């Protein structure tokens, strides 16, 4: 694994980990809300397994997260960050691309689909609009901060930073997503994995089911019994399911 840096279109430095393999196929992994390139250790272990199976892997911190440059986060900025990660992958000589996203990283992956993306693996993805109050424990004070100052501070348990600044726009970003428009623009098979436990994961699974007819042909939507939004007790199963899916839908070139 190599620590790498690249720039987004705003000139901010983004930090990632690159897992090199002897191929031109790369999987770009995008983390969720208030997370980082490690994704609570999920991406670290998945990346190693994928690398062992011949895939290059790039994990990265969106701007304002982890080791990347500070900025107040909102969705449009993170879209630009994923596009910058893909551009960097092109510059590394990669020719085949797949996305792997967790939670909000799933929505980012769907939004950033381009015709050269062969497939996606999405765990607990946000596939439609969801009330921001349901996503995290936003306090009244934080909401008031956003209203008055345009941003609010979240204190996080992160090895690289103590706080993340939430732009007021992010609250609206959760509330507004044109599910049909985004999903109908994606034309690659997707593995979607949801859990059956916890209020957030149940709601996300229901949102996905509501848009099931909009997903592209070849998509598989499944639920893991007993899994909550973190899937921390099901990492072995996620790893196996994801690797099997990629072997079927994403060749090592």
From TrEMBL:
Domain spans labelled Serine aminopeptidase S33: 22-131
Annotated Gene3D superfamilies: alpha/beta hydrolase
Pfam families: Hydrolase_4
Keyword Magnesium: no
Family matches, as InterPro entries: AB_hydrolase_fold, AB_hydrolase_sf, Hydrolase_4
Keywords: Aminopeptidase, Hydrolase, Protease
GO cellular component: membrane
Signal sequence extent: none
GO molecular function: aminopeptidase activity
Name of this protein: Serine aminopeptidase S33 family
Record lineage: Bacteria, Bacillati, Bacillota, Bacilli, Bacillales
